[in-house]
Amino acid sequence: MTDELLTPKQVQAQYGFSRQTLANWRWMGSGPAYIKTTSSRAGRIMYRRSAIEAWLTAQTVQVGGAAA
């Protein structure tokens, strides 16, 4: 089974992050890993679903336990 590739528009629809937020994260070097099909500015951006899920897992804050 191959890992599903999503466009920024699909990521927005399925996860709620706006395309502008995704673009800002790419510019800042944060956010989920992405694929750029060409090195030019007009290169198409794609996200692996597994990369988004892994990034979300890494952002998860566990509550409870000792105070910070």
Pattern of helices and strands? EHHEEH
Instruction: Give the end-to-end Cα distance, rounded to a whole number of Å.
Output: 41 Å
Helix proportion = 40-55%
Structural class: alpha+beta
Count of spatially separate domains: 1
Report the portion of residues in β strands. Answer: 5-15%
Structural shape: elongated
Number of helices: 3
Rg measurement, Å:
14 Å
Layout: helices, strands, pairs:
Elements: E1 5-6, H1 8-15, H2 19-28, E2 35-36, E3 45-48, H3 49-59
Antiparallel strand pairs: 1-3, 2-3
Description:
The chain has three helices and three strands; from the N terminus they run βααββα. The protein is α+β, with helices and mostly antiparallel strands. It has one domain. The protein has a three-stranded antiparallel β-sheet. Strand 2 and strand 3 form a beta hairpin. 10% of the residues are buried.
Brief characterization of the structure:
With 68 residues, the protein is α+β, with helices and mostly antiparallel strands. The chain has helices spanning 8-15, 19-28, 49-59; strands spanning 5-6, 35-36, 45-48.
Identify the notable features of this structure and list them briefly.
68 residues; 12% strand; 3 strands; alpha+beta; elongated
